[in-house]
Design a protein that fits this description.
By secondary structure, the protein is of the alpha+beta class. The chain is built from 11 helices and 6 strands. A 6-stranded antiparallel beta sheet has the order 1-2-3-4-6-5, sandwiched between helices. A hairpin with a 5-residue loop joins strand 5 and strand 6.
């Protein structure tokens, strides 16, 4: 059967991400994580979720919600990755804590996990900034200091192309790691399950497997769209500042980096609105604009097995309808034993 794709979503948007041997699904009011242990059991957890926009209405305003969503999803993504590792339980080899880990646990007590997760998130952000902000702009230092509209555009075009090339190279490298390839398969199962839900079909592996692994609301598309739009956005800002003040923002490398970081929330806010508009619209122009992001997803998604789709479906059902019946662990997780799964 031909792969199906969706151009519009009749239901509330359901998002998610691949985790260690599983999938996280985020419904409007709940988050669920399901993982498959090596013995075939599926372990699922669920927790209530309140979006930042519900707590503070201004965070849900157009062009602001994109930056807010990026930060909140980064924090949530790091947390569910940690949760999924713990949920794999006895299948994970426990190592003797180092002296530093013991000292850290003694000093921080129950807060040690939060501190470690916070440090990991800071390191991840620093790596991303170095790879996709600092490094691409090094090439601009070799351009002449001449300030003109075309020169500013050329500088931003070159740094943008380098940034996109680094993104493709980084994802391609990750895809060569066997464990990451499995994660990319779970990413594909997440997309197929979301499509199945959006088409109002019963959530079964057979129904989910009809659909494509490429989804217009994927974070991969968001990243690529942000990189593309940054070329145009930064060029417009640079030209406006040059014409109004006579100052070239990109003349000094460090000034260029600082202004790019300060303007990052603006470009992410714009990219978020464009992504949602493209995901919920259709037409030749819209399909053409979606195409690059969908093709990029061929690197971050792979065809999943039926068992992987089953994990994604368990996560989806838990997020939408609550935890299933089954054996409950001390942590409150539900274990669906292999012989009990449908």
């Amino acid at each position: 059967m031909a792969k199906k794709t969706a151009s519009a979503c009749p239901r509330a948007d359901i998002g998610g991400q691949a985790v260690m041997d599983g999938v996280m699904m985020k419904a409007p009011d709940a988050i669920a994580v399901a993982v498959r242990r090596q013995n075939g059991d599926i372990v699922v957890k669920r927790e209530e979720y309140e979006s930042p926009a519900k707590k503070h209405k201004w965070m849900g305003l157009p062009f602001i919600r994109g930056a807010v969503n990026m930060v909140s999803m980064l924090a949530l993504g790091m947390r569910v990755l940690t949760d999924s590792t713990k949920m794999l339980g006895e299948d994970m080899t426990e190592e003797e804590p180092s002296k530093f880990e013991k000292w850290l646990a003694q000093k921080l007590g129950k807060n040690v996990d939060k501190v470690v997760m916070g440090v990991a998130m800071v390191l991840a952000v620093c790596l991303a900034m170095g790879l996709f902000v600092l490094l691409p702009n090094v090439a601009v230092m070799f351009f002449p200091a001449q300030a003109s509209g075309w020169m500013l555009l050329l500088k931003n075009l070159v740094s943008g192309i380098i940034r996109i090339a680094l993104l493709i190279a980084y994802i391609s490298f990750c895809g060569r790691i066997p464990e990451m390839r499995k994660t990319f398969q779970y990413h594909g199962s997440e997309h197929k399950t979301v499509y199945c839900h959006e088409h109002d079909l019963p959530l079964t592996p057979a129904n989910a497997q009809q659909f494509s692994t490429l989804h217009p609301r994927c974070g991969t598309s968001f990243l690529l769209l942000t990189f593309f739009l940054s070329i145009v956005f930064y060029s417009i800002i640079d030209v406006l500042v040059l014409q109004l003040t006579g100052f070239d923002l990109g003349a000094n490398y460090f000034m260029r980096i600082i202004t790019r970081l300060l303007l990052l929330p603006c470009i992410t806010g714009i990219s978020y609105e464009v992504l949602k508009g493209l995901a919920h619209s259709d037409g030749p122009l819209v399909r053409a604009m979606r195409w690059p992001g969908l093709q990029m997803q061929r690197l971050t998604t792979k065809e999943p097995t039926d068992e992987m789709c089953e994990v994604a479906i368990v996560s989806m059902n838990a997020a939408l309808h609550g935890l299933p019946e089954g054996e409950k662990t001390e942590e409150g997780w539900i274990i669906l034993h292999k012989d009990e799964q449908k």
